[in-house]
Amino acid sequence: MKSYKDYMLYYKLPHTWCAGCSHGIVLQSIAATLADLGWDKHDICLVSGIGCFGRVDDYLDINCMHVTHGRALAAATGVALGNPNLHVLCTMGDGDGATIGGNHLIHAARRNINVTAIISNNYNYGQTGGQYSATTPTHSITQTSPYGHIEENFDVCKLAIAAGASYVGRATPYNPVMMRKLMKEAMQVKGFALVEVMSACPTHYGKFNKLGEASRMMKLMNEQSVTAEQAAKMSEEELKGKLVVGCLKNAPRDDYYTDYKKIIDAHRIEG
């Protein structure tokens, strides 16, 4: 029986994330999920981008690529198509994955690339001082919106569902058991799978919006959470300010590589 420690570079701990940051919980959940699946570490490739959560590859003992800001999914697409036998994971923050890399997110989901994307959403660009991102809630205070954020924010999961992802789920760090369950389901799906993890950033977002210490931020996320089953019985008004958690879509279909290979095989000229 494998342990999450088998997939981690323990000598690099403790990690460099701020005290109270939820990224460490997500890191351990990824390693625990890989151990649960029992995959050979040589058959896994993790691609990460720039940002706080981009550092996750520093602590995992698997094949990793650290690429440019907003381009993690573009690189992961190349890996998945170049070697379809690999289990390809792509870890991003909300700035990297949904803001600068938002277009790649849409098209990876639309094409149904065989990649499991894990977005740790802390509502801001944490690494560069707490600027607002595409997921920052309207009216929130950030480094670049000191009088309140006026833009509408993305719902990452709804975006992925609308774009055609095969699997979509959301969890909070308050419930790592649910997080690992969703990750395990997502990693076994053939096609594009997304797990959004809501992450506490007490250093920037929490401080600017007076949300208190990390434990209070996590409790607040839990209080805001409703399951997909509960949400189905609630009105739009009742759902305002809520986080819908759990599996939000599980409808596998042929991935991009499978469909493309059918065309190649159908037009192959035997020499």
Count of alpha and pi helical runs:
11
Main sheet makeup:
8 strands, mixed
Q: Rounded to an integer, what's the Rg over CA atoms? A: 18 Å
Strand order of the largest sheet: 2-1-3-4-8-7-10-9
CATH superfamily: Thiamin diphosphate (ThDP)-binding fold, Pyr/PP domains
How many domains? The number is 1
Task: Please write out the topology.
Elements (H helix, E strand, L loop, with lengths): L22 H15 L6 E5 L14 E4 L5 H11 L4 E7 H7 L1 H10 L4 E6 L2 E2 L5 E2 L23 H8 L3 E5 L4 H12 L5 E6 L3 H7 L5 H11 E3 H4 L4 H4 L3 E8 L5 H11 L5
Parallel strand pairs: 1-2, 1-3, 3-4, 4-8, 7-8, 9-10
Antiparallel strand pairs: 5-6, 7-10
Helix pairs in contact: 1-6, 3-4, 4-5
